[in-house]
Amino acid sequence: MRGDVVLILWLVRDAASFGHSMKTWMRQMNVLVVLGMLTQCAAPGLHADREAFRAADANGDGKLSLAEAEAFEYRRIFDSVDLDGDGVVTLQEAKEISPDFTLAKFREYDLNRDGKVTYAEFEKVQKAKGDVKKRFLAADLDGDGFVTKKEADTRVKFLRDYAGGSM
After folding, report:
1. Count of CB atoms situated within 10 Å of the CB of 96
2. Which of 4, 7, 77, 109 has its CA 20 to 30 A from that of 135?
3. What do you get for the CA distance between the two ends of the chain, in Å?
4. Is residue 76 situated within a structural domain?
């Protein structure tokens, strides 16, 4: 089973077992899924998903810059919500992913108020939130501005230990 599926199943189990609200569950899922590019769990090992790491490593130098991490992760998230693949996300598509998704949340991303969220709008809001940057900095153990495969693997181990081995 792919690591991202394992992670989502873990989150669903966690939310259900502790009676978390959908909002809490979505926040928890967002935190861990955004981090997924750097630390996708690959069952049964402790290594980050090599395929995802290589895909994110646009210049093929064996390490990820913040720009590579952001470009990869933002596109992956946006494409997963753009269900019809037309290059924009509508409120209906967002609600198909999360029935509790609100118009207010949608408007946070629909910067020009045309009823659609483009990739450029999504990326601008995501960068302002800084979630990928925060997770990137947490994985960049030596502070050199890059995340190596070894650092990503170390972050996976930390997250698994933090989650009590249930990832």
Report:
1. 12
2. 109
3. 12
4. yes
- Residue 53, pLDDT above cutoff 90: no
89 confidence band (pLDDT: 50, 70, 90) = very high
Instruction: Tell me the C-alpha distance between 162 and 76, whole Å.
Output: 25
For residue 105, how many C-alpha atoms fall within 13 Å in the half-sphere facing its CB?
14
Q: What is the DSSP letter of 98?
A: -
144: left (phi over 0), alpha (psi -120 to 50) or beta: alpha
Residue of 67, 108, 63 whose CA lies nearest to 89: 108
* Count of structural domains within the chain: 1
Counting Cα atoms < 13 Å in the Cβ hemisphere of 35 gives: 23
Q: Which two tokens stand for residue 72?
A: 């990869």
Question: What tokens appear for 150 in the block?
Answer: 């070894």
72 vs 21, 56, 57, 105, 144, CA distance in Å? 29, 5, 9, 23, 20
Residue 94 in domain: yes
Phi, psi angles (nearest 5°) of residue 3? -60, -40
